[in-house]
Write a structure and sequence with these properties.
Number of strands: 6
Number of domains: 1
Shape: globular
Structural class: alpha+beta
Strand content: 25-35%
Number of helices: 4
């Protein structure tokens, strides 16, 4: 369960390393991915996907730097992955 202010969202949460997004070919749409020191320092930071961004923050609010609850653990949003639909749509000429 993720929570921002009075909005709750059911979500799958995974603990990943700094190379996860590169290995999976997932690009950042906003912000940054995890750094090498994040795991070592046990930083309470999260990267959310585009759909979660829309559900928690809407289309215009900036989620970067916002604190959300992952269950009961406060975590700071450092990145949002690129919208899969936008990245898979061929460019028009």
């Amino acid at each position: 369960m993720l929570r921002f202010e009075n909005i709750d969202v059911n979500a799958t949460v995974n603990g990943v390393s700094e190379s996860y997004f590169q290995v999976r070919g997932i690009k950042m749409g906003e912000g940054v991915s995890f750094g090498k020191d994040d795991a070592r320092r046990q930083s309470q930071v999260v990267v959310i996907d585009h759909n979660t961004r829309l559900r928690l923050f809407g289309p215009t609010a900036n989620p970067l730097g916002q604190v959300i609850l992952v269950d009961n653990l406060p975590c700071t949003v450092i990145g949002v992955t690129e919208d899969k639909k936008a990245s898979s749509t061929p460019a028009r000429r």
